[in-house]
């Protein structure tokens, strides 16, 4: 499966992505070579979970952890079909209704950069590790809200994962040519954590803080070791701890986390 990514022109003369991959381990962290940071729910406030719940309940559906798990971090059409299976109607009509509901929601709760996002990216950059942003919407979403953070990310800057959710395998192997034990994902959804565990990928959870979400307990069920409440909690000490765990193959309980790509 090919990965569709959109980068920026490199005017620094640093060379192609393939040249970058030949560079040795970055200074600062002993083992990890890439940190992939989710956009909505980590760097930006969550504008998906609350809208999904509002849409489900407005149509008489019962919203709970199982349904939330089935809908978040899926491709748009897969999530819409899962919703249609519960609420009736077609996936296409529900997808249209979802984006209409989201526009109304954003009038009350505009998209904003979360407190600590700039500081997190500065800390990641200070370690020398490469960083990339990813999410289910197109690159324009990144440019609109995170354009002033672009300097903190390495090519291709942003990866749209709508066609290959959750995107851990594709970002790790196809975009950066790395092993699974060499990357760290920071995300707000337990489904992504589950895939990270299956692949042996380091993971830090930053579940949405909206009152009616279920991602924090779902992450605990998955066995996520590091679940934070603020981006400032992802400090140098935690990053070095996760780096050491990745080097030892101990990101996950019961000896999981040793699988390599």
What does it look like?
The chain has 261 residues and is α/β, with parallel strands linked by helices. It is 42% helix and 10% strand. It contains 11 helices and 6 strands. The protein has helices at 17-21, 49-58, 65-71, 76-87, 91-108, 117-126, 139-146, 168-175, 190-199, 215-222, 236-248, and strands at 5-6, 34-38, 130-135, 158-160, 183-187, 202-205. The chain has a 6-stranded mixed sheet, sandwiched between helices. Strand 3, helix 7 and strand 4 form a beta-alpha-beta unit. Helix 2 (49-58) packs across helix 5, helix 4 packs across helix 5 (91-108) and helix 9 packs parallel to helix 10 (215-222). The radius of gyration is 18 Å and the shape is globular. The chain starts with a strand and ends in a 13-residue tail after the last helix. Mean pLDDT is 85; it is low at 6-26 and 257-261.
Q: Which runs of at least 5 residues are low in confidence (pLDDT < 50)? A: 6-26, 257-261
Order of helices and strands: EHEHHHHHEHEHEHEHH
Instruction: Tell me the overall shape.
Output: globular
N-end to C-end Cα span: 16 Å
Q: Describe the strand arrangement of the main beta sheet, using strand numbers.
A: 1-4-3-2-5-6
């Amino acid at each position: 499966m090919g990965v569709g990514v959109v980068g920026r022109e490199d005017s620094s003369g640093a060379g192609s992505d393939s040249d970058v991959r030949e560079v040795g381990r970055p200074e600062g962290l002993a083992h990890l070579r890439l940190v992939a940071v989710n956009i909505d729910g980590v760097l930006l406030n969550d504008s998906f979970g609350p809208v999904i719940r509002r849409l489900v309940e407005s149509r008489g559906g019962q919203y709970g952890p199982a349904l939330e798990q089935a809908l978040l971090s899926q491709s748009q059409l897969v999530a819409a079909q899962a919703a249609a299976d519960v609420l009736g109607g077609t996936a296409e009509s529900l997808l249209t209704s979802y984006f209409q509901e989201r526009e109304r929601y954003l009038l009350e709760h505009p998209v904003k950069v979360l407190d600590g996002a700039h500081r997190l990216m500065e800390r990641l950059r200070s370690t020398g590790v490469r960083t990339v942003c990813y999410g289910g919407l197109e690159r324009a979403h990144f440019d609109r809200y995170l354009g002033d953070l672009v300097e903190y990310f390495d090519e291709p800057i942003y990866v749209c994962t709508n066609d290959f959710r959750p995107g851990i395998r594709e970002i790790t192997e196809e975009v950066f040519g790395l092993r699974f034990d060499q990357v760290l994902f920071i995300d707000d959804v337990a489904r992504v954590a589950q895939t990270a565990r299956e692949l042996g990928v380091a993971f830090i959870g930053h579940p949405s803080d909206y009152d009616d979400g279920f991602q924090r307990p779902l992450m605990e069920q998955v066995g996520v070791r590091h679940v934070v409440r603020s981006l400032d909690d992802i400090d140098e000490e935690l990053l070095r701890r996760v780096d050491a765990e990745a080097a030892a193959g101990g990101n996950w309980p019961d000896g999981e986390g040793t699988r390599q790509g």
